[in-house]
Batch of 2 targets.
Target 1
Amino acid sequence: MKKKLLLTLLSIGLLAGCQTTTPTPVPVDYSQIKLAKGNIVHDGEVYIPAWVRNEKKINQVLSNVHYCADNIVLRFQTMSTQDITDSCKLLKDTETRFHQLFNRQGKPVLHDNNNILRANIYAGRDDYVKYVTEHFDVPSDNGGMYLEGLPHIENNSAEYVAYLRNGKVWNLNHEFVHYLDGRFNTYGDYCSPPHDNHYGPEYCPEPAPEPPYMIWWGEGLGEYVAHMKDNPAALKLAANKTFQLSELFYNNSANWNTKRIYRWGYLAVRYMMENQRDKVEDMLSHVRRGDYARYQKVVKIWGTSMDADFHQWLDTVAIK
Ligand SMILES: [Zn+2]
């Protein structure tokens, strides 16, 4: 009951446009938390997300809060009014586009409590490197990260860590799509789908399950929804036909490079979304239920059947 009352008060605060103070977080009894499959917690230890443990420290540095909407929060060091307006617009436009594509508004996957995404924005790369590892227990050698946490926990908070570059939040759009994909398309926490990435922030346990993984989809979708048809960096590569579609389904951490994962991932997802939508829907029907064994079977059945068509399609979109 206490939780419900606090939640109600929180909602009223949000509706009233309360934008200057951090709302009192609903207390979570972490000792009662049943762990999601995947996250490493040693026997006898209790999982408490770093951003919960370090809340005070984080608030001292990221001392400003702005609500773009009741489900999108910016917590930041310093941002201009224009940056805030632009960032909020970008996120809300992306959310609208995502729901137009998938028609899942109001229908998150089962056991997903990530109602709110909080973007944590450092003033620049130097501050990001200085603080982000201490605050969020993540590596700092990146351009931003989405931290899904344990979405099956009530009041889990989905966090995005980022920094300003040339007055704009770097990678804001792409990371936000990971949040939407995690909430509306892929069941479970980050470690639930087949993966071979054991790095932070999730530190999924080894050994890696067998491929195919979902990297082609997650990273490709991030780029697709962020850029839609306007992605010259990828479209300039299309005519090279560097990869078969069937190879891209096997994108992984070992063959990770910007062109393959982001540019070619974009081309793979765009092709599938625009030309093989029935296959995407079939795939998502399993992924949304967390039946990842079935997902892998589906991709294996696809095999090389779409390779020739993919290469023909590349010619139609290539920027030469
Ligand atoms: Zn990404």
Target 2
Amino acid sequence: MTARVVLGVSGASGAALALDCARALHAAGAEVELVLSAMAERTLALEIGPAARDELVALAARVHPVIDLGAAIASGSFPVAGMIVAPCSMRSLAAIAHGLDDNLLTRAAGVQLKERRPLILLAREAPLTLAHLHNMTAVTEMGAVVLPPVPAFYLRPVTVAEITAQIAARAVDLLHLGPPIAQAWTPETKGNAT
Ligand SMILES: Cc1cc2nc3c(=O)[nH]c(=O)nc-3n(C[C@H](O)[C@H](O)[C@H](O)COP(=O)(O)O)c2cc1C
């Protein structure tokens, strides 16, 4: 059976991560159930351009309005392999950490937690307040994985696209849909002196 994965996109910086996650999920053969917050629509346009939303939507099997709390992904009875929130804002993180389920993105994330399914949060802010750190602890205690979108410096990336593609690949690998797709570190990795 084809894996369905919910991809939530919130309004943190790093909209390129959403596109790279969608590309990686699509390439892995997963059906993407896409939900974008209102601020995600804005950051996609701001950081990438006016065509970014359409490109993202083209990679999705279904797109769900963030206000549609009656969508299939709002229910634990709808089988999905897990969810990635890329990028995950501190607002969405806080809502997930406190079980607010106040829109379809945070509701779908809460569903993953209650159903004990993988939930990967590419939580992005800098610097972090104690509230952000408490919320990261809370979601981790509930079983989510906080994957801050920081570069894999050890792979010596040259472009931002290399950085975001590697982070997205690591996020998809955490769902364990198939063989790993992220570039793995080996002592022979490019440019390594010894
Ligand atoms: C250009 C831009 C960049 C932003 N970057 C971040 C960020 O990195 N992290 C964050 O938590 N919020 C960031 N925000 C603020 C969020 O968009 C805002 O808190 C919003 O309420 C998040 O709502 P959402 O979680 O429903 O998308 C940014 C906003 C803009 C306009």
